[in-house]
Design brief:
- The chain is mainly alpha-helical.
- The chain has one domain (2-91).
- The chain contains four helices and no strands.
- Helix 1 packs across helix 3 and helix 1 crosses helix 4.
- 22% of the residues are buried.
- The model has no long low-confidence stretch (mean pLDDT 93).
Length: 92
């Protein structure tokens, strides 16, 4: 269950960062968050937790999932970047 929530949170994070162009270039603070996978992952985490815990969410658990999702999303993003660079970086 925890892994599924983290995967969902990473999906929410990616979606917010890369698939919602209407959020960009409106508010400087929001733009800063969207550039930071850790920051956006935090918000993706509590959103994913809420989706999985309805109808009885717990604020303490939501905060724990938010931080877990932040580092999970960041690590996943960096891992994918590393793999992309090692695979496609030599072709330039």
């Amino acid at each position: 269950m925890i892994f599924l929530v983290l995967i969902a949170a990473a999906g929410i994070t990616f979606g917010i960062q890369h698939k919602m162009p209407f959020l960009h270039k409106k508010v400087d603070l929001l733009d800063s968050m969207l550039k930071c996978t850790y920051c956006t992952g935090f918000h993706g985490g509590w959103l994913a937790y809420l989706l999985f815990s309805l109808p009885s969410p717990n604020a303490q658990e939501a905060l724990l999932y938010a931080f877990a999702s932040a580092i999970f999303s960041y690590a996943l993003d960096e891992g994918v970047k590393f793999l992309e660079e090692s695979r496609y970086g030599d072709k330039e």
